[in-house]
Amino acid sequence: MPDDGSTKILVQYTKHRHMSGAEVQDIEAEIINNDGFIEWKYEQGDVMYQKVIQMVKEKVPIREIGETLDIGKSTVHRLKTKALAEGLL
Questions:
Q1: In this predicted model, what pLDDT tens digit does every residue of 50-61 receive, in sequence order?
Q2: Residue 1 domain-assigned?
Q3: Is 74's pLDDT higher than 90?
């Protein structure tokens, strides 16, 4: 485990059969070493989308969001527009 005592894992289904909807959503899990006690938490869904929404709410510039998440500015803008349309921003 890194110095902060946690490890993050991103599970993405790039190909799938006989699965749909919630079954194929991304899962971001975090394993945490809390003074010798191991615990884990996870988020399910479009994790990148959720991160973009959070960063936009924090007023992070689009360019910086793209650099931080390693995605293009156009992708950030598209996700921001989607979130606005869905009433999430």
A1: 899 999 999 999
A2: no
A3: yes
Find residue 38's DSSP bridge partners.
33
Distances (CA, A) of 4 to 7, 43, 69, 74: 9, 20, 20, 33
Structural domains of the chain, count: 2
Residue 75 confidence (pLDDT) above 70? yes
Task: Give me Rg for the CA atoms of the chain.
Answer: 15
Q: Could you give the 3-state DSSP secondary structure of residue 75?
A: helix
Reported confidence tier of residue 44, pLDDT bands at 50, 70, 90: confident
Tokens at residue 35, please? 């003074």
Shared-domain flag, residues 10 and 40: yes
Kindly compute the dihedral angle of the four CA atoms of residues 48, 20, 81, 78, in this order, to the nearest 10 degrees. 60
Domain that holds residue 13: 6-44
Tokens for 14? 């790039």
